């Protein structure tokens, strides 16, 4: 047996004894090793399940009112029913309203991330790849959007069209796509000068093939990282708009709306604002933990540390 054949046989033997880990095993192993990531994934998964299963988990109708149980403290009971988190100023079950309120926060958060990331990805790819006049026009549009303060922009749009779930998503996405566009544009400008892109041009590859085959896969990691980190910010923005009365109108419960309604009674009924505030804090903390883990997992600069 020649030396090359021996070397090849040894490689096959090592491959059989030490099989390469699948990406799923590597992903789960990374989460398990980083305890903060595990905590974030568990918390975020719990919030997602609560939002999805709200009709099954909520003990009562979140809009049901009763003057006989106004502002009752946690663990108060009536007719055999226990109000675990108490009731609000209209006698509504706070736990049910908190569970249903998670649906608005999750829908707004994830949908806004997807829309703003998708819009910013397309605009950033076009601006960075084609450059010149295309780049100038698209970046000036981004500068124009950034010139308006976020709250002022939300006030202007909502005052004209009225508050709704769809409009809240549009308002948040309209502002934040510029962040993704600038990040993608910067990455594309660097990639455009690399040897494999120049070689693809020399071989006669079309623009669409170069963008989707060579550039897009190399800019997805930053998009995923930024999206995960901004998910919590989207939830906070929605809660802030609802707190100011610019969010989803009643009777739909939202976490920001619960804070706004309960702030008047905080001196006598602390639970009305405490539990919605904790829900927002825990959810945002979970998204930040997952975002930090994704950054460490996907970014080679952090993975090398």
Structure, described:
The structure is a single chain. The chain is mostly helical and 305 residues long. The chain has a single domain (42-61, 92-303), classed as MetI-like (MetI-like fold), CATH 1.10.3720. Helix content is 73%, strand content 2%. Strand 1 and strand 2 form a beta hairpin.
What are the segments in which pLDDT stays under 50 over at least 5 consecutive residues?
Answer: 8-20
Q: Per the principal axes of the C-alpha atoms, what is the gross shape? A: elongated
CATH architecture grouping: Orthogonal Bundle
What fold name goes in the CATH topology slot? Answer: MetI-like fold
Number of strands: 2
CATH superfamily: MetI-like
Q: Could you name the CATH class?
A: Mainly Alpha
Biggest β-sheet: count, sense, barrel? 2 strands, antiparallel
- Element-level helix/strand string: HHHHEEHHHHHHHHH
List the total number of helices: 13
- The residue-averaged pLDDT reads 82
> How much strand?
under 5%
- Roughly how many Å is the radius of gyration? 25 Å
The amount of helix comes to: over 70%
Which secondary-structure class do the elements indicate? mainly alpha
Distance between the termini: 43 Å
Tally the structural domains: 1
